[in-house]
Structures are given as structure tokens and as C-alpha cells.
Write a structure and sequence with these properties.
Layout (H helix, E strand, L loop, with lengths): L2 H16 L11 H23 L18 H4 L7 H21 L4 H19 L9 H18 L2 H14 L15 H17 L54
Helix pairs in contact: 1-4, 1-7, 2-4, 4-6, 5-6, 5-8, 6-7, 6-8
Length: about 250
């Protein structure tokens, strides 16, 4: 794990502690269990390939071919080598953890529906080759976490977005064909899908709280146009005059 990735974990745990006061943000076991299961699954599939000498590359996305559609569901679990697998595992775990903690109401939809749409978009626009790896999902999560925090204008979520930029901002370059043998089309598909879902679910979950004006006694002293309204003074109640009559007791005669 690189120093930047260690810093990322540190920043995330600090934000978790800060946000304990947020009622909408409560820790659930799924915050870690689902990301761990996802990472375990891709490592297990790679172990099967090594153990039995299998090659699952043909289960990847093959664009504009009916049989290549199976890669929409299978390709995220298939990797070419250990380096490819490790490079996807760390950001996949970190970003999916953020997704299930900060956006738990829509996390499952983002991961499932977003993953399918990313695969379909890759199938439509990519060059003719087998496209494998979970990098499309990583870019989906990166894009959603980054843009969703900014769109929602919640200062805590914006902080998470800035941390994401700080640690994984360089990923943006890999949506361009700058490296041979890399599925930049899958990266681009994930990035686009993440932006779309960030806009689509911008009003779900934690959003910027709108200021609610509460009227005070001082505000009632002005009308809608801001003119001062003198307070109404109740007329004094005139008390009836009470007269007293004193009768002095005469001294008793001796």
C-alpha cells in the first residue's frame, strides 16, 4: 500500500469520527463486508485461474458481439495478472466503502445498475478486443463519489470529494488512449456512468440543509415591507374609587 493510500484511509477514518453526529450516517457491518466480499471474489477467481490453469479472458466484454455481452457481468471479476488485480483491489475497496457509508441509500443501485450500464457502454464504444478487469467499476465509484459530493453541496461530502481528487485524481488521464493494452474505453464508460448517477440521485440521501427562517418577537414589530409597527398598549383599566368609613368606638363609661 502506497503512502497516499495510507493517507486516504486516515482521512476517511477522521471523517467517519467527525460525522458521528450526523443522524443519517450510522455505521453498519455492510460498510466493510460488501467491499471485502467484492475484493475477495476477484482474488478467488484469479486464484482459480492460477490453480487450474484456466483462462477466463474470453468471458470479458467483446464489443458489438452478442456472445460478448456476457462480459458485462463477468469481466469485473477477471484480471490479466497480479499487478492488474492489486491495482484494482485497493481503490475498489476504499471507494466502495465510501459509497456504502456516505451513500448507503443508493449504494447497491450504483454498484449493480452502474456496473451493468458501464459494461454495456463499453460493449458499444470499445474497440474489438476482450475487455476485462474491475477498473470500469473503480472509475464508476470514483466518478460518483467525486461529483456527488460537489453536486449535493454538503460540506462533509465535498471534503470526501476533495480527498478523492487528491489521491486518485490522476486516474482521469487513463480515460484517454495513452497506454497500450489498457481498456481506456471501460474507464471512460465508468466515468460517464458515475456522473450520470450522481446527477440522477442528487436528491437522495444526505443533501445540503436549507436554512429555515424562524420568526421571533422582534420580527413581529415590522410588516412585510419592513415598516415599523408600534406595539399596541392596552388602555389602563380605571379602578372604581373605594371609600372607607371609619367608626370609632366610644370609650366605655366607667
Amino acid at each position: 500500500m502506497t503512502e497516499l493510500q495510507k493517507c486516504y484511509f486516515g482521512f476517511i477514518f477522521v471523517i467517519f469520527n467527525i460525522m458521528k453526529t450526523e443522524q443519517q450516517l450510522k455505521f453498519f457491518p455492510t460498510v466493510f463486508t460488501i467491499p471485502l466480499l467484492f475484493v475477495f471474489a476477484i482474488w478467488f477467481v484469479y486464484w482459480l485461474e492460477i490453480k487450474f490453469g484456466w483462462n477466463f479472458n474470453k468471458f470479458g466484454v467483446y464489443p458489438r458481439n452478442i456472445s460478448g455481452l456476457k462480459g458485462v457481468f463477468c469481466s469485473p471479476f477477471i484480471h490479466s495478472d497480479t499487478n492488474h488485480l492489486f491495482n484494482n483491489s485497493v481503490p475498489l475497496f476504499v471507494l466502495s466503502t465510501c459509497l456504502f457509508y456516505f451513500y448507503k441509500e443508493v449504494a447497491a443501485k450504483i454498484l449493480i445498475y452502474g456496473g451493468i450500464i458501464t459494461g454495456l457502454l463499453t460493449w458499444l464504444i470499445a474497440r474489438e478486443s476482450y475487455h476485462i478487469g474491475a477498473s470500469g467499476i473503480v472509475y464508476l465509484l470514483f466518478s460518483f463519489v467525486l461529483f456527488s459530493g460537489v453536486i449535493r453541496k454538503n460540506y462533509r461530502l465535498v471534503a470526501v470529494s476533495f480527498i478523492t481528487i487528491f489521491l486518485y485524481g490522476s486516474m482521469v488521464w487513463y480515460v484517454l488512449p495513452i497506454k497500450e493494452g489498457m481498456s481506456w474505453e471501460g474507464h471512460l464508460s465508468g466515468l460517464i456512468t458515475g456522473v450520470v448517477f450522481a446527477l440522477l440521485y442528487r436528491k437522495r440521501g444526505i443533501v445540503k440543509e436549507k436554512f429555515k427562517f424562524s420568526q421571533t418577537e422582534f420580527d413581529s414589530m415590522f410588516d412585510e415591507d419592513g415598516n415599523y409597527i408600534p406595539p399596541v398598549v392596552d388602555e389602563e383599566i380605571e379602578l372604581k374609587e373605594i371609600s372607607y368609613r371609619y367608626i370609632y368606638k366610644e370609650k366605655e363609661q366607667e
